[in-house]
Design a protein that fits this description.
alpha/beta, two-stranded antiparallel ribbon, 10 strands, 26% helix
């Protein structure tokens, strides 16, 4: 069975964006970005809500822009080759390669994907991931912990639950970012 992974950049106080919705503090350095790309190769399907999908759309053509560096081109190619499912009731259509639009997030369908797909699934965005976390479907958390406190905003984890985790991998980058990989009990 493949894993359902929730991954993202997080401030020291647990936020993915500050009170104004900014996440500029989480722009990865080259070595962090190379590591993110390396890990992305292991993912077979991304699950996105509308907002996260709209943030990621640029990767569908990023490698076609003149003068892009190799890190950008590498991640763009990985992202384009990965299946994507977007859950939205308001998005009219999807415009990217290998992408399906679904109107409803179905937890049983995610369980079925975990049982039948051959590569791991990554769920992105705190709202969509929060539903899967609450349902006990997320097997692993991959956090890029940034050395910044933002004081409030959008949290990575739901606030209405307790979830014991086991640290199974860690990596410190030169810029102070920590990669932390946890599994659920």
């Amino acid at each position: 069975m493949v894993k359902l992974i929730s991954s993202g950049a997080v401030s020291l106080d647990g936020y993915v964006a500050d009170l104004e919705g900014n996440y500029d503090w989480s722009i990865p350095s080259d070595d962090v970005f190379a590591f993110i790309s390396w890990r992305a190769r292991l993912v077979g399907t991304y699950l996105y809500g509308r907002c996260m999908y709209e943030e990621m759309v640029e990767w569908d053509t990023a490698d076609q822009r003149p003068g892009q560096d190799s890190l950008i081109n590498n991640f763009a190619k990985i992202w384009q080759a990965t299946d994507k499912i977007v859950y939205s009731t308001t998005l009219g259509a999807v415009s990217t390669t290998r992408t399906q639009l679904k109107r409803r997030f179905d937890l049983q369908e995610v369980e079925q994907m975990k049982a039948t797909l051959e590569q791991d699934i990554e769920i992105a965005g705190p709202c969509l991931a929060g539903n899967a976390i609450r349902a006990g479907l997320v097997d692993e958390f991959q956090l890029y912990l940034h050395p910044v406190v933002v004081g409030g905003g959008r949290r990575f984890f739901p606030t209405d639950m307790r979830l014991p985790l086991d640290l199974v991998e860690q990596h410190r980058f030169d810029d102070g970012v920590m990669f932390l990989r946890y599994t659920t009990h």
